[in-house]
Structure formats: C-alpha cells, structure tokens
Amino acid sequence: MNGIIEFFIKKPKVVNIIMILLLLIGINSIRTIQREGYPSVDFGVAVVTTVFPGASPEDVEISVTRKVEDTLKGIEGIDSFSSTSMESVSQIGVYFEQGSDYDKTINTIQKKINQINDFPSDVEIPIVQEISNDQIPTMEIAITGAADYEKKREVAKALEKRIRRIKEVSDIQKFGFLDREVHVKVNQEKMNAEYIALNQVSQAIFLQNQRIGAGTMRSQQEKKVLFLSEFEEVLDVKDVIIRSGFQNNKVKISDIATVESTYSRPDLLYLANGEELINLIVFKKNNADIINLANSVEEELDIFTPSLDEDIKVDVLFDYSENAEGLIQLVVNNAIIGLILVLLTLFILLNFKVAFWTALGIPLSILFAFLFFPSLEVRINFISLMSFIIVLGLLVDDAIVIAENIFSYREKGLSPIDASIQGTKEVMWPVITTVLTTIVAFAPLIAMSGVMGEFMWQMPVVVTFVLLGSLVESLFILPSHIAHSKFKKINREKSFIFTLGNYYEKFVYKCLKYRWLTVLAFIIMLIVAIALLVTSMKFVLFSTDEGDFLFIKFEKPIGTPLEETAESAKAFYPIIDEYLGSQVLSYMTTIGEQNPKIEESGGNSQSESLGNIIIFMKSESERTQSTAKTLKSIKEKAMAIPGFEKIEIDQVSEGPPVGRAVTITVVSDNDALRTTIAKDLKSFLADQTSVSRIQDNEGIGKNTLEIRIDKELASRLLINFNELGNMIRSIYSGDIVTNITKDGERYEYRVMMDETGQSSINSLLNSNVLNANQKLIPLKKIVQIKEVPDVAKVNHYKGTRSISIYADNDNEIITPLELNENIRQYLKHYTDDNIDVEIIFGGEEKATQESLESLMIAMVLALLGIYFILVILFNSFGQPFVVMTAIPFTFSGIVYTFFLHGMDFGFMAMIGLIGLTGIVVNDALIMISMLNRCRDEQGTDLKSLSVAARRRFRPILLTTITTAAGLFPSAYGLGGTNAFLKPMILSIAWGLVFATIITLLLVPALYKIQLGFSGQGFLGYKRVYKFFKKIRSNKS
After folding, report:
1. What torsion do the CA atoms of 894, 898, 904, 906 make, to the nearest 10 degrees?
2. Over 70: is that where the pLDDT of 133 sits?
3. How much is the mean pLDDT over the chain?
C-alpha cells in the first residue's frame, strides 16, 4: 500500500489521466441509468383471480376458491394465503416465504392451478399475477367530451395504437372501454306464443354462424376445404331461422326478439372530474426510465390532440412521472444547497488550494460509484439520491484528515512530496478504518427482511461505493495534487479555529482532571434521555402528514343501482372543485367498486351501491397548503352530505405500504363464534377514543332469489338440470353464444330476455324449458322461488373461513403497538384453550414488529462489525470500547433532538441511528489514534493528553461542520421537504453534532480512565477484582 501511495504521488500525470477517465466513464453511466420515484419493491405477494360468471359468493367459494386453495397447500415457497369469494369472482392473495424464489413459485402456482380439471364448465382460466410497485403506471389519460360514446371509443383505439409504438411501453390498460356486443332481446310473450324456449334461440344462432375447416381435397392440386355459414354483417342474426316447416311456416329471430349492435353492460362506471370517460393507463417496461417514457407519451399527445374535433377532450389525468421527477428534484435541490455549504465551509476554513483539491473528491467519489450501479441494478430514485446526501459531507472527511496532516508536515519544513508521503502514510490506517466502520454500519440494512428491506437496500449499496470512491480518491489522487501544488504560508494562529482550539485545550484539560465527574455528567444526560423516551415519546413506524393522493369512499343502501350511485356521487364534486387548480390536479370516480388503486389494506369490494373518488394532489411545491389541511377541509364538508350509508375520507401516505394500524383476522369455521368475536372486537374498538374508520371485509350482499327445483318431478319430465340452470342465467345475465370479427373488432352475440322479462319473478315463472322430447315445460311447475339475504363476500385464511377487522388510529393518543397489545389482552379469553379459533394480528402492528426485529439484528451486526475492525486497528480489546462509548451517548442526543422538535421516534430515526454508529466512531477513532501516539512518544500526563487532543480538534471540527452542512438543508427542507425521510436525516445530522461533543470531551476522559486500568487485564478486571477482595477482607 505504501509503495502504491508513493507511486501515485510521484506520477501526477498518471493521476490526472485516471481522474479524467473516471469523470468521463462516470458521466456516461449517469446518462444511461434509469430514474424512478420510490425504489421498485417486490412485495412477495401474488394474486390468483378466477372469474365464475353469475355465481354467488358461496358458489364461488365451493366450486373455485376451495379447489385452488387445496392446490396451494402443497406448493413449496408459500408462507400463507388468504382468499375472498365474491359474486362471480374468486381472489386469493398468496404470500411467499422470505428468501424464496418468487418467479419459480409463481410458475409452479400457475402450472398446478392449470391442472385442476373439475371446475364448472363456464369458469374462466385463473390468472396469477405478482404484486410489486413496478406495476405503478406512468400516466393516466382521460378521454372525455360531449361526443357520443362511439366517437370517444374510436379516439381511444387510435391513441392506444400510437402510444403502443413507444418501445418503453409494456402495457396499456383501458377502463370504461366496453367490448362490442350484439344483444338479442327476446320477448317472452312472443316466444311463448311461437312455442319456443330460450335455449332454442341460443342454439339456432350458434349453429347458423359456423366456420369449419373441413380438411384437404387431394387431387392434382391440393385444395383446402372450408365450410362457411358465417354472418356477413353484424345484424344478420335477425334472419336466423329458429324453426321452419311447410307452407312457409318459419320463425326467425326478428319475429320474437329485438336485435341491437351495442356494447357490453358495464359493471363499473368511471368519471374524470365528474365527466364519464375512457381511461388509458400506460405502464412502463421494467427497465424503462419513467420520466423519458412520460415525455415520449406527451410528445405523442401533442401530435395527436390538435386534429381532434372540439367535442372530444384528451387530458392527462395524472402523470406519475411528475411525482418521481418531483422527488428527485427535491433531493437534488437539497443536495445542491448542501454541496454549496460544504464547499463554502472548505474554502472558509482551509487553504484555498487544499479546499479545491479536497472538494474535487466529491464529484470523483460519486462518479466512481456510478461505475458500478448499472451492474448492481441501482437506479436514480428518492432513496438512492437521499443516500448521496447522507454521505455528501462524509466524502470530504477522509480528504480533510489527510490534507490537514500533509499540510502540517509541510509547515514543519518537509518537501511537498515527502510531506505528502509521510502525511498520507501516518493517517492511512485510521482513515481506512473510518471508511470501513461507516460501511459496516450501513451494510446490515441490506439483510433487512420484508418490504422495508426491499425498500431500503439501495441505501447501504450507495453509501458503500461512494465511500470506497472517496477512500480511493483520498489515498491516491488527493496527495498527488497537494504534493504538486504551491501554497502560501498561512498564519494559523490568527484564525478563528486556532483561537477556539486554545479554549478547547484548556477545557479538555479540566475534563481530563475531573474525568469521573465528566463521565458522570454524560451518564446523567443519557439517563434523562432514556426517561424522556419512555415517558414522553412514542414509537410510530411512519409518521407523515403529506401525501399525493386523497380518497373518498362512499356507500349507498344495499341494492342501489349503479346509475343512482353515480348520480349521488355528484354531491362530492363541487366540494373537490373548490380546490381544483390550486391544491388538486384532478380526480377520478369509480362506481361499483371500492378500488384497488387505493393503497390500503381492506380488500376490494364490488357492488353497485359502492364507489370511491381518487383525488390527485398537485406536487408539494405547487400546493399552497399541506395535504393534511386540504383533507381536513374536504372532510368537514363531505361528511355532512346526506343519503349515504357510509362515507370515509383519508389520504395515502408516503413511504412503503405497511397496512393499517389495526388489521386483525379472526379465523374459524365456526360461523357463529367467528361472527361473535368480530362483533365484540368492533364494539371494543368503537369505545377507544383513538380509533376511527372501523371496517370489516365481509358485509351484506344483495338479496338472493333461491330457485329450488323439484328434482323428482323434473326427472319424470325429462328435464336436463344443467340446461335449465344455463337457461335461467341467460334470462338475467345473457348467454354469449357465438361471435364474429368485423373490421378488426370482435362482436359477441348475447341472448337474453328483454327488460320486461327480467323485471319480475312472474316473468321467470312464465318461462318454458325444453325437455328431452322437445316439449316445453312451464318453469312454474317444477321450481319454487325464495328470497333470502346473502353475504357480499366469503373470506378464508389458509383455507379456513375468516373475517378481518381494520381500523385507523390517532398516534397522538396511543401508538399502534400499545393499541394492539390492549386488543390482544381483550381477546385473550377467546383463544385460551380454544382450538376452534385463531386470531392473527397484521397490518402496521405486524410491520412494526418485523421492522424492529430487523433493526435490532442490523444494529447488533453493525456493532459487532465495528468492534471487530477496531480490535484489529488498536490490537486491543479495551480501547474499541472507549471509541464505541460515543454510540449510546449519541443516542441521547437523538432523543433530545426529536423531543425538542416535537416528533415521534420511529423506523426512519432508527435507520439513521444505525448509520450513525459507523459515522460517530470515526472522530473518536481519530482522537484515540492521536492519544495513543501521545502515550507512546510523550507520556500520558494531563498536559500532554490535552495538547494531543487539541491537535485533532481542527480536523474533527471540520469534518463535523462539512457533514452537518451537507445534511441540514434536507433536515429542514431548504430545497423542499419530505416527511418520510426527514426523521432519518435529523437523527444523523444532530446525532453527529452530539457525537462531536462526546468525542472532544468524553472520549479523552474515558481514555485517561482506561489508561488507569492498563495491565490489569480486559477492561481492568484484575484491579476491580482486587478492589472487591479488599472490601471483603476488611469486613471479615
């Protein structure tokens, strides 16, 4: 290592070539690296969705969900699964084991499910989809206007075609875009008069629209044979003959039914800013840059929209890349301010040329790191850029220490080259150690489990490679530049820091003299901090009051038609419109579903009586008030709107999804017990002053008409039960019997009863069914109809019926951890010695427990790693403890910081503390190294130790000021603020300030105390042993 350092110091041209290459290659890497808002997170979750048209929740449960669940039970890599069986749909959430191969598990799930061969015939193929935030769209485009639906639909098709040509686009999903259908609406009276059954109509249409490959004619020239009996025009179905006889006695479709070319009946309605719309949602490829893709889509829109008629509007409903760009710009702004402050500090406190060459290490270190990022799949996002801010000030710490040491040797009269060689070699190992301790402190974050681990892993990677870059620059490039630069002699005795150093030397002398009193003062400070933490502060996983989305969920009485629910939703629009343009960018309404776009736990609900509104907020820099204030104002007005069963209004907070404060699942096949516990729990939660938005994932569905057949009579009458069931479904839902493709579009033919035939029970009873002898049997002879209430959903956890209860919590009153512990104690009597029920706690409480466990493991690994490195450096078991005493005392500084700022102590503050463990020992390490040198060369009297401590005062103070200068703009939002990461930056910035005080005052005192135990074994245990032995002998 010494030889390499000498080589580079003596070869400045080689150093400059390497530096230029590093700059060019690094800049090229920055140009090609992808950008995103928050990091891509693989949640370790997949959803299996199966459609069973027209089936009730219980039918879906029995015929679909249980069969899929039985298949999942034998698949390796699955931790658990939960399901919801709704009308026509089965959804199963599959949660993977940490560390398992997600892709392999998903492929196995799809393969095993495809092997299920006893689904009902009309069940659609199950779809397995992995959930990750890579699926967040790039842009949502709204097509609205006064034009008719057909015209808007054609515009949507044309625009989709244009956007799909962009190579970064992976998919475009369309909402409000209905498939083409031809509806054959049969009149019951006419059908009965012609002695025809509904299934005969379906069969006739199917048989007379055929395209069959008949094989090959083998002659001198082979020819394909194709049988054609297709509809040439869309409405040719009118002429289909149902029955024909002699004397022109034939019955056509047009004789008993009306035929219209239309669209599929919407299950959901979509509106943008109160207008019905077709919504195009553009998704990017995994390796695409979200900002570049958004710009490309905008360019296509600029070309496409000018040619449209005035009655068509195409608007960007929400551009998710602006969110990403805003986050990146926020960090860049703070980084620029921090960099300016760091540079000002360097140029004010150092010689100009030393400051220049030291500052040059910042871009070189960052560009060095960018060389490795593409291969490590590190992207430019909020977390990676914030990591740059964390190390911004640290980048020059090594350079300051080395430059200061070189400069001191030049002042002693050594030649520039010799001073650079000697000055670098002297502090080389302490500098390497400081970099390693910081890397080791951040490294365990890579091993964090769960969503938080996925969310934070880029931070330690960025910190590691940037610090390695700074180490390379400090050891091999900086000394060469200083060695070949001329410096004016500076009278340091006139500088402010020199004067401050004089005062410090006198003060540290007293700290050394009254070392036990000094230690006692810091211990008292630590005890007070712990007392404050326990009695006056709360641990909250994430605490933010800013978000980019608000949502309104609403519910009309059960059975309310879709159109009436949409009409009622209009009452919210004037309230939102008050903020449109100032605080709100746009809003989108979904009627018929409480929507999966809302990033909260609770499961999706589908019913014509439900709806929600997503409110897209303007970027934080454009808003004139906080999201929390806008939310409060909208909430006060909207909650007073009459006519709704339930209204819920809240925001989607920043950061990774952690679930709601209360997420409790009651698992039992005993329906009565499960319902009793859920009801009791909701009653308990309602009594808690901190709890709001209490929900469950069950709910009451629409009333059901149970049609029960007289099996004995029906059998005697030769009625096919399956055909009867299909016919009844056709009456109400319609039956897709055939299709054609015309002008590139698929038209499906749906046979159903007309509106009169669908409107009453009598219409159903007056229908006829065809038996095996081709005779019509009145339905009223063989069935009985009973109206009964039904559930909206049937939920399972690991195959057992369950119900989940969700609620929010006011963290100012009680923390989610404390609330969930109270709930656990309240429900304890249900689970004691009762194997019929299991109660599972999830959501924020589970995420908090998992995060705390991961944090504790990360902290222990960091401390052990740092201790191991220090033992190697000092060749001592005791001295590393003196260095590491800075850590617990620094923790007290963080507690005081959050207490004085009125902030909760949470996950991000703990992340800051872990990273800080490596940073705070650096100054202590530099101090101990100098004190050891003093011990070896001058002795350990108080005067010598205080002079030695003073020699490290300047570099320690400089490194603290530069690091703090890089962090404080982000901590206080000088270039824009983010509530999610602010706690971490605050803990590091102020923790470092407290750590400096500890290093300058406490560490020398502890060092002097440790010297008193020298030669007395590990930490002086021999002296302690003799002390207690003497006490015992005196007593005897």
Report:
1. -20
2. no
3. 82
Full-model pTM: 0.73
Strand blocks (E) in 200-306: 210-217, 223-229, 241-244, 250-252, 257-263, 269-272, 275-276, 278-284
Amino acid letter, residue 128: V
Smallest CA-to-CA distance from 43 within 600, 462, 658 is with: 658
Burial class of residue 232 (count of CB atoms within 10 Å of its CB; 0-12, 13-18, 19+): exposed
Residue with tokens 């579903």: 593
Strands 745-753 and 180-186: parallel
In angstroms, the CA 278 to CA 276 distance is 7
One-character DSSP codes across 893-918? HHHHHHHHTT--B-HHHHHHHHHHHH
Closest CA to 419 of 354, 480, 351, 361: 480
Task: Compute the C-alpha angle 639/645/647, nearest 5°.
Answer: 35
d(CA 861, CA 867): 10
Q: Report helix, strand or coil for 551.
A: strand
Dist. CA 280–CA 663, nearest whole Å: 33
Average pLDDT, integer, range 429-449 = 81
Q: How far apart are CA 599 and CA 594, in angstroms?
A: 11
Give the residue among 1005, 995, 1002 at the shortest CA–CA distance from 959. 995
In 174-223, where does DSSP find H-type helix?
Answer: 188-193, 198-207
Task: Dump pLDDT digits (tens) for 894-919.
Answer: 888 888 888 877 777 887 887 778 77
Contacts of 958 (CB under 8 A, 6+ apart): 345, 349, 350, 400, 404, 497
- What distance in Å separates the CA atoms of residue 665 and residue 688, rounded to the nearest whole number? 19
Please tell me what DSSP assigns to residue 236: G
CB 847 within 8 A of CB 659: yes
Pairing of strands 549-555, 584-594: unpaired
Distance, CA of 662 to CA of 692 (rounded, Å): 10
Give dist(CA 454, CA 494) in Å, integer: 52
Task: List Cβ neighbours of 510 (8 Å cut-off, separation of 6 or more).
Answer: none
Tokens of 412: 């002693």
Q: What is the pLDDT of residues 454-508, one digit of tens each?
A: 777 888 898 899 889 888 888 888 888 888 877 665 555 556 677 888 888 899 8
Go through 170-206 and write b for each residue having 16 or more CB atoms within 10 A of its CB, e for each that does not.
bebeebbbeebbbbbbbbbeebbeeebbbbbbbebbe
Residue-by-residue DSSP string for 672-718? HHHHHHHHHHHHHHHT-TTEEEEEES--B---EEEEEE-HHHHHHTT
Closest CA to 926 of 561, 562, 549, 426: 426
Distance CA 225, CA 605 (A): 51
3-class secondary structure, 90: strand
SS3 state at 493: helix
Cα dihedral value 213, 217, 221, 226, nearest 10: -30
124 DSSP 8-state letter: P
Place of tokens 């026509």: 88
Token code pair at residue 995 = 């750590």
Among candidate residues 276, 282, 263, the one with its CA nearest the CA of residue 734:
263
Strand 269-272 vs strand 838-841: parallel, antiparallel, or unpaired? unpaired
Centre a 10 Å sphere on the Cβ of residue 357 and count the other Cβ atoms it contains: 22
Binned at pLDDT 50, 70 and 90, residue 1024 comes out as very low
Model confidence over 535-555: pLDDT tens digits?
Answer: 877 766 666 556 678 889 898
Count of H-run helices and E-run strands, the chain:
40, 31
In angstroms, what is the C-alpha Rg of the chain? Answer: 37
Q: What is the mean pLDDT of residues 569-584?
A: 90
DSSP state of 420: H
pLDDT for res 1032: 55
